[in-house]
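for the writeup, i need someone to sanity check this before i put it in the appendix. the sequnce is what the collaborator sent (i think, or maybe the updated version? ugh). structure was predicted straight from it, no edits. if anything looks off just tell me and ill rerun, i have time this weekend
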Amino acid sequence: MGIKMSEKFEKKRIVIKVGTSTLTHKTGKTNIARIAKLASVLSDLKNEGREIILVSSGAIGVGVGKLRLGEKPSETKGLQAAAAVGQCELMFLYDKFFSEYGVVVSQLLLTVGEIDDEESKEHLIDTLNQLLAYDCLPIVNENDSVSVDELLNGDNDCLSARVAQITNADLLIMLTDTDGLYDSNPAVNPSAEPIRKVKEINDEIRAIAGSAGKKGTGGFVTKIKAAEIAVSSEIPVVIMNGAKPTDIYKVLDGKPVGTYFEVVKND
């Protein structure tokens, strides 16, 4: 169900994607304790010899809380302004908590279009690889303040898959506000059962992917699209609840956490 690591803790390159719902409280304000715990876990994984790339949503949500707006703006310019404020606050918190463990972080604001452009992609790959060589922890986010498409379509899920793809990652873990993919919407159907393993992303899986959550712009539809991108590049994916970042250890120990998407073997 999970990714069984070797007993010698063989170095693995892991992309972790964290959503807005994981980083904020129901009040809309920043979940400081959650961010602190996530920084602790990821720092510890680096100490074990793993290379970690964090793809983080949350700039708009954190910005809304920082500006005390009460709710997300309805206009694009308001969302862009909230993202600008929130990105500053988000990186301040990441830098603060990671620095407590001696981890240097870096910020990359991207769009999917930049990854699609061959020249930009090569520069990005070089930068990410050099940051990892410097033992930094790259933190990637959409450039929401200038890119309207990403802002409105919530493409951070797919962005995380593309980052995993271009960096030849060994695993993509997506942290969200549910315990993985269910066979029906658990918010509507109390009898919904979690799907622990997906061998193939087919029309049935896409049909039950669900709708967008309340805080983030992406929902399970975008997560399934992201999983398709990753598994087609032979990168396994785990979608799990981000409420307990320490459960990442269980994933790496091969324990059944969240929903595990098997890779598609390319001939």
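Residues 5-9, 211-218 have pLDDT under 50 and may be disordered. The chain has eleven helices and eight strands.
thx in advance!!
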